[in-house]
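Lecture notes, unit on protein representations.

Consider one protein chain, 449 amino acids long.
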Amino acid sequence: MLEPAKHSKEYDRWLFFFFIALLIWIPLPLASNKLWASSLLCMVSFSLTAWWLTLFSLNRVEISESLKKSLPIILLLSFAPLWAFAQSLLSSEYLGASIDRSSSLHDAALGVSFILIFCLTLLLASSKSRLKVLAYSLIFSGLFQAVYGSMMSLTGIEYSFFVPKEAYTNLATGTFINRNHLAGYLVLTLSVGIGIMISSLNTSSVSGWRAHSRRLLATLLGPKARLRVMLIIMVAGLVMTHSRMGNTAFFASLAITGVLALILGKHSTRSTIMLISSLIVIDIFVMGTFFGVDKVADRLQNTSEASETRDEVNTYTLDAIQDNLWVGSGAGTYYTNFPQYREYDAGRGFYDHAHNDYFEFASDYGVIVTGCLIAAVLLVFISALRALKSRKNTLMRGLAFSAAMAVIALAIHSTVDFNLQIPANAATFMVILALGQISLYQKNRKVKS
């Protein structure tokens, strides 16, 4: 069992439940990608942190070992909101001053809220039961988005969040505006679901047909079967977004992480190999037949330089980066800064974000801060790999798999999209990064009889 809290009463129990409610809420109001929704996200995360600090001052809670070990990562992440805040304060004659102070100040507050969500996950997910509640909350949130998006698409009654859809009709978008961002969110929640599925696999070997029969029945009728059905539905929702890179990132990250887990894991079993293989093979060839994987394949085949303007946008974004290489133009200012660099071949559309997270962060924050953010994610990825190699606890290994898969998936998807500019996806990614740290540093402890 995981190490219990030293205090006899769980003073932060309600705080944990409110935190779960926040995570479930964030994707609902158009992925919190509206000013009022992102402001509410900031206010609630600040309030929950103040609540925890009050309990800490009263000696009701303590700092977890996972958070202590994650201080270097928190420091690296903090450079972004701190620099955004500084950009919003500098006068225009100074190097690094933001060209849109209000946008930079808003992004600074949003960046702080993401770091607080990372810290709250490390502090509140302090037991095996809480980790499972957190994981299943994300899974159910992804399941709702998949079912809701698919039903809206199949019935033709298309609403996002109480608002009729204006774009991406006949495609699954859930309560998101953009299908690619729903795909990104589903990949993140699927990574959590697959990690939990792996943690529930039997690692012990059995002999005899009766034992095998009992295990088979338990698999078919037990919680693992229900979780597997939920994962299938979520994959179907992912396919129905027709997001090329979303689907590519999912299957590539699953395959890569599966290979890494088999190489690093001393406790990998045949059931792990069978699960990963079934997720790839069955989901592509069976679910895709009914829900349109052929259309995703057609979109991939028909992609050409003539039909896409993202290459031109990236080229002009690189020009913007070079003009403010080290300090950036200001957090949240891409939509203001980009028009002065674009040319006619970038298309007629208005670009409020670059279709490349790496480029947008470099354009807004500069390459130094962007490098700090990448380093923070790499440190978590290394922690997840270390957990896959060294941890014997099945739950910790499952969470490590989830974190590694999520990092690989977003690393791929971010080359052509801006998932990390969407509050729902960024916040969920921060939670999964925290789970990666927990998978390595939250220790087991035997309970005395």
